[in-house]
Amino acid sequence: MSDQAETRRFRDAIGHFATGVCVVTAFSENGPTGMTANAITSLSLDPLLMIVCFDRNARTRVAAEATGRVAVNVLAADQKALSHVFASKASEEEKFAGVDWSERAGVPVLEGSLAWFTGSLEDLRPGGDHEIGIVAVEEFGASGGEPLIYHRGAYSRLLGERP
Ligand SMILES: Cc1cc2nc3c(=O)[nH]c(=O)nc-3n(C[C@H](O)[C@H](O)[C@H](O)COP(=O)(O)O)c2cc1C
Fold first, then answer.
1. Number of domains, the chain
2. CATH (domain of 82)
């Protein structure tokens, strides 16, 4: 099997692992910048740590590494369009056009997210074509609501209501 076919097969298989969708933000020298990400998880409770996996080519990684600060914004079900634009290579200006955000703890936080976390990028470790970012969480908050879901390469919604 070719490398490409094996990559496809891996993506298809790992796509069965349903995730939420986040936008990871940071400040670049041109202002706020950000990327859609789902390779994110909590790592530690004491101290509070999260993992954010950055594609080596992600411009957001460069900004996060330069400033040492990031925010993780958990998207709501109605923020699919936001996820789409932040997954593109549009300019920072285009990505943030019409997006409500505010600066919290030195990073841009998106309005309307279900939850947000700010923190310092403590470490970036090699992980193949990605880098594993370890974030020491500082401030965070959550408003609740229906999350945006990513499953098998497509956006989806939760079935059923929470009691
Ligand atoms: C659902 C979804 C999840 C993604 N997850 C990640 C991720 O965890 N890490 C990452 O580096 N890129 C991820 N991407 C791809 C980035 O969003 C994409 O490469 C983006 O163009 C990076 O923008 P930037 O170069 O402005 O930082 C994801 C894309 C989608 C659609």
1. 1
2. 2.30.110.10
